[in-house]
Structures are given as structure tokens and as C-alpha cells.
Amino acid sequence: MSSGDPETRARILAAARALMDEAPGAPVSMGAVAQRAGVSRQALYLHFADRAALFVEVSRLVDSTERTADRQRRVDQAPSGREALRQAVALQGVLKPRVNGLAVTMDVMRRADPAANAAWQEREHARLSRCEDVIRRVDTEGKLGPAWDVPTAAGLMWAVTSQRVWDDLVCDQGWSQARYVARLTTLLERALLNE
Description:
The protein folds into 2 domains: 6-62, Arc Repressor Mutant, subunit A, CATH 1.10.10.60; 67-192, Tetracycline Repressor, domain 2, CATH 1.10.357. It is built from 10 helices and no strands. It has helices at residues 6-22, 30-37, 41-47, 51-66, 69-76, 81-109, 114-140, 150-160, 163-172, 177-192. The radius of gyration is 18 Å and the shape is elongated.
């Protein structure tokens, strides 16, 4: 991050997110962000050293805006590991449609763009860490199935709750959000839990 006016910085972040939401998967250039935010490219670079810094901050903004403390608390303070798993899947059901533009754009761009890849990696490592927290709790309570260890079970949970799986099931297959949450919860419970 760098110097600059907080209002301008917020406008730049909002412009970048809006561009990603409007055309998921389309490349987002610094010039387009500057134009949308109503600032010069020089002003943009006063706030963000490069595209990597901008994309990481947009990702963090989206996560902090959509993953509210109350939503995360339902996972963290669930009365059991099983309920934490259920709440974690329910939270993904809330988040996926809200972050779709950002996620699709970064997923497409990350393969050829180091800036997008840096933001993608940070976001996905954080999500994997949250899956590990849930599975570790399940394991501590003695409910993790005998065929699983924490890293492998967390990896499965992370993969099953990915943006791509949500997109395939909800957008392509027409599943409702309720069906997505119910079916993924059932799948993970049957696959991972010992009862």
C-alpha cells in the first residue's frame, strides 16, 4: 500500500470490484480501473504499487465485506464440530454468489497474470485454513472418520466448496442455493464423519 486519500482508495477498490462483477472472467487493466474510478493512472499507482497489490486488496475487501463477523461466528462458535461443518457450508452458500465476479475473474486471469495469481493464492490459502480449523475440531471431538487425517479431509472440504463447484452446480446445473447447501453438507458429513 502507499500514500493517498482514503476516499480515492475506496473509489479505486469499488471500481475494480465493479469491473470484475460486470464481466466475470474478463481481464481488468489498471487503465480501466483508473477510468472507472475517475482518477489518473498516476493517482492509481499512488494508492497501489501494481496490479498484484490492487487485486489482493480487492480480494480482502470482498472477503471482509461479505464474510461478516456474525456469519463467521456461526462457524467458530458452533456447539460441535459437526455443526461447525454445517455452518461452514452454509456460509459458502451465502458467499459464493456474492464473490462470483471477483472469483471468476481471478481464476481466469491467474493462469497468465502473476498479480491475479497472488490474490487468488492468498484467498484460497485463507479458505483452506478455515476448512482445516473446522476439520481439526471434528477430529478433536473424535468424529473424523478413520480413513481421514486432518489435512486430507480439509483438502476435500476445500475442493468441494470451491467457486468452480458452486458455479457448476448452481449456474450450470440450475441448483438452488438451498439445494447446494443441503447436498454438499450431506456429502461432506457422509464422506468425512464417522457417524
